Structure formats: structure tokens, C-alpha cells
Amino acid sequence: MTLFHFFNCAILTFGPHAVYYSATPLSEYDTLGTSIKSAIVYLVTALVKLVCLATFLKVSETDHFDPYQEALKALIGFVDVAGLYFALTQLTHRNISQNHKFQAVGLGWAFADSVLHRLAPLWVGARGLEFTWDFILQGLEANANLVFSISLAALGSLMWLRKNKPKTLIPIIYVCAVIVATMPSITSYLKRGLGWHFPEVVGFQLSISLVMALISCQLFSACQRPSY
């Protein structure tokens, strides 16, 4: 029963990444190499963030929300944006379109994040004798993070790779990118500042991820239309 619970949670956490890759044209264009490269960039970025967090953040003895610490954490979180910029603009890719490139980069980014932050807790906790919903919620959170990562990669693609985008959409693109990039700080405020429970936070993440995915899709489609 414990292994059954572990496999269910693992499939819920990592399965959507495989489904997304196989169910979209990414598998047809063999973009696995791009996803692997972006995953490696994520791991390097995570190491840089870890060093910055250990250097500049103080160890809090309480679980209360500290605006200064959270603002600094959000600022350090923009290292992810720098990593995505490198993955989108500096890595060598196969001859694939911009549409497939940002999806492959976002997919690899999200998968590396799930492996780094959720595999060990699943292996240690989900095999316990007592059933808990926390690991199912972690799987749902990983799904929301997958949508966030692809949305941020799409917005980054519009910011750095699309030159002839409508000027009226530029502020919207940047605002949406900031919202997605600061989502970890937003969820931290909901948990520590407002006292939201984990199911409420995950529900919020899933809802916002769908909204941001819809907005990113509309922005990407609008920027691809020829201007007259």
C-alpha cells in the first residue's frame, strides 16, 4: 500500500511532464536535447540561488512573514529569469521554431525543479505507513509549476526573441512576467502572512497558473499575427 501511494504521487508529480512532451509536437521535432540542456541550466541556476540565499538571508527563528527578507528572496528569485534568458538565447538548439523552443525550455526547467524539490520528499514521506494528502497536493503543485514555467518561458521568448511585437502589448508582457517570476514570494506571503493552509495555496496556484497560461497564449498568438 505504501509503494502504491508513492507511485501514485510520483506519477501525479512527474507524469504530466512526459504526457506534455509526447502529446505535443515536441516529440515529433525531437526537442529532448533542448529540454535536457535547460534542465542543466536550471540546476546551475538553483545552485547560484542557494549560494545567494545562504549569503544574504538570515536564518529566521520564527515562521512569521518578514517583508524585508521576502523582498530580498524575491529579488534573488530573479536569478531564474537570468537562467531562462540564457537557456532561450544562448544555448544551441536544433532548427526548431520559436514556439517549440520555449515549450522545450519550459518543460525541462519545470521537470528539473520537480526532481530537485519533490523527488526526495516523495521517496522519504510517501512510502510512510500513514496516508497523507500532502504528497498528492505536492503533485498538484508540481503541475501548477509546470504551467508557470512554460508561461514564463513563453513570456521570455516574447521579450527577448520577438522583435516585431506590438508596442501596446509590451507592458502587459512585462507585468505578466513579473507576476509569474514572483509567484514563490506571493505564495510565501499567503502561507506566512495570511495563514493560508497548504490546500488553499495549491488551489490558488492552480487557478493563477491557468489564468497566466491563457494570457500568455493570447499574447503569443497576438505577437505572431503579421502587422499591417
TrEMBL record:
Keywords: Cell membrane, Endoplasmic reticulum, Membrane, Transmembrane, Transmembrane helix. It is found in: Cell membrane; Endoplasmic reticulum membrane. The keyword Repeat does not apply. The keyword Membrane applies. It holds the Pfam family DUF2053. Its main location: membrane. It is a multi-pass membrane protein. The chain crosses the membrane at residues 39-59, 71-92, 104-124, 144-161, 168-190, 202-223. GO terms for cellular component: endoplasmic reticulum membrane; plasma membrane. Belongs to the TMEM147 family. This is BOS complex subunit TMEM147. It comes from Cannabis sativa (Hemp).
